Amino acid sequence: MISLGSQREFFWDNYLIDTEKTTASHVVHRPVRRNIVKILDRPWEGDGCNYYNMVYDRKTRSYYLYYLAWEMLNPEGTQHTMADIHVCMMNSRDGLHWERPSLGLYEFAGSRDNNIVLMNSAFPGMISIDNFFVSMDENPDPVVPERFKATMAYWRREEDGSHYRALYSLVSEDGIHFRHLGVITEKGRFDSLNVLQWSPRTRLYHCYVRDFHHPADENGVLRDVAISEEHGLNEAVRDIRVLTSEDFIHWTEPQKLQFNDVEDHPLYTSCISLYPRNRNVMVGFPTRYVERKQWTENFDRLCGAEKRRQRSTIHPRYGLVTTDCVFMCSRDGLNWFRHDDAFIRPGPEHPLNWVYGDCYPAVGLIESPSDIPGADPEMSLLLFENHWSGLPAQIVRYSLRWDGFVSLHAGIRPQRIVTRTFTFEGSQLGINFETSARGWVRLSLRNMETGKEFHSGELFGNRIDRIVDFDGELVELRGIPVVMEIELCDADMYAFKFGD
Predict the structure, then answer these.
(1) pTM here?
(2) Domain check: are 352 and 457 in the same one?
(3) What is the C-alpha separation between 294 and 321, in angstroms, rounded?
(4) What are phi and psi of 306, to 5 degrees?
(5) Distance CA 373, CA 376 (A)
(6) Among residues 347, 368, 403, which one ends one of the domains?
């Protein structure tokens, strides 16, 4: 039996529902592109700004947005460069209007008037900074006291010409001055944003890293071949793995994420974070990496074909790869429910999209007001555009209703949702739902000890927290095993929460 207490619960997966009795179906909802938030046009930012991640500091009441800044291509467009990558930081009071603080930490072009947080010079022997991620440590009793915890991929070239690869841990008290703490792991590729979160549910630090595995053969057996450039790195499947730690010092071995029954598709960034309306649940927006095997006429028909062909001369995949984004959620950090209908698509074609690097959300979600006076606040995500273009990157805001990643949906033919048995605390129920003018939702709660049922009237509308009126006092059911049944017509159910 499930104990909900008074925390918000969602219909994003099958955790709470009786799948044999539920006839409503999952539908993935896509965020809407809104406005350009910032153009990254400073000389030290180059055209390759990416891997954005955001934290909120309750002490300063500010958001911090970290990102990499670099030149992706040489001036001739004939070489992909990864030298002189800088880590930069912007801050914001509302998560929508961003400023570059003048940090004075590192010199660029003879001046320290910039927002650079880290440069290569801070790490002797390192080829280049890459994949820098910052999280706010919410552990109430941390062994390592600094509030900001970070990860960074570290590469150096050995005397024999080989490369040493590791994932570093870093810490900071103010989110600006970071020190190297240690090595999280040497097992992994790390060539994507490696994400770190402390989970209040598991009371563990979870670190999500990039690696590869070979696809299964026709019998479902994974090929046991060392993955390297010589053995077809790009024929392997990019995957996500997780390590955990109790103290941010000692870490477990990486484990592949476990998914529901979905395809074994290459995944790039994981973009995993705690969900703000229930921090016991993790959400992720993994990039789906799609590498077509050869150039076809369709590539010629895509906007920006000339630049795509030019990138292909550097490496074929820079022209052949496109990316989008899917949604997944988890309660333990290892087992994930993933929807493979795209959460974010590249969108209408124009010369600068449908590229390798589209649909990478920043890690972190923002509450923002609706453009409609009196309407519910929205959830905002930040994405970047202009990748591979030679133009300054721009940060773009997308919006979605809170809890609105996935719903259980019914069309004009009524369907139902039946939950597993659970207990709750509180005296009222609020639901996140949406109907048409014709549509409706009805709810009932059944006391599994006595069989007594409480029923709602017909509900219609569109709110993220609508109080449901029943023909009985819900306080009578508090702490008692119940089953909830929901009938819905031309409607979507996203989430619910018991409380007072």
Answers:
(1) 0.94
(2) no
(3) 10
(4) -65, -45
(5) 9
(6) 403
DSSP secondary structure letter of residue 117:
E
Q: Are 340 and 448 members of one domain? A: no
- Is residue 86 within 8 Å of 116, Cβ to Cβ? yes
What is the per-residue DSSP string for 351-380?
TT-SSTTTT-BPB--EEE--SSTTSPPEEE
CATH number assigned to the domain comprising residue 19: 2.60.120
pLDDT in tens, 377-407: 999 999 999 998 889 999 999 999 999 999 9
Tell how many helices (H) and how many strands (E) occur in the chain: 3, 32
Q: Specify the pLDDT at position 277.
A: 97
Domain around 491: 2-27+407-499
Task: With beta carbons less than 8 A apart as the criterion, state whether 196 and 133 touch.
Answer: yes
Q: Cite the beta strand spans of 214-365 per DSSP E.
A: 237-245, 255-256, 258-259, 273-275, 278-284, 287-291, 321-330, 335-344
Q: Give per-residue pLDDT as tens, 156-195.
A: 888 888 889 999 999 999 999 999 999 999 999 998 999 9
- Contact status, residue 12 vs residue 417, Cβ threshold 8 Å: no
- Looking up tokens 């790869």, which residue turns up? 321
As a whole number of angstroms, the distance between CA 325 and CA 267 comes to: 9
Distance between CA atoms of residues 51 and 268, nearest Å: 11
CATH code assigned at 258: 2.115.10.20
Q: Are residues 344 and 360 in the same domain?
A: yes
Q: Tell me the DSSP string of 157-173.
A: E-TTS-EEEEEEEEEES
- Average pLDDT over the chain, rounded to whole? 93
Query: 327, 406 in Cβ contact below 8 A?
Result: yes
Q: Are residues 443 and 356 in the same domain?
A: no
For the chain, give percent helix, strand, coil, nearest 5. Answer: 5, 45, 45
Q: Which two tokens stand for residue 153?
A: 């991929």
Does residue 230 sit in the same domain as residue 291?
yes
Q: Check whether residue 256 and residue 182 sit in a common domain.
A: yes
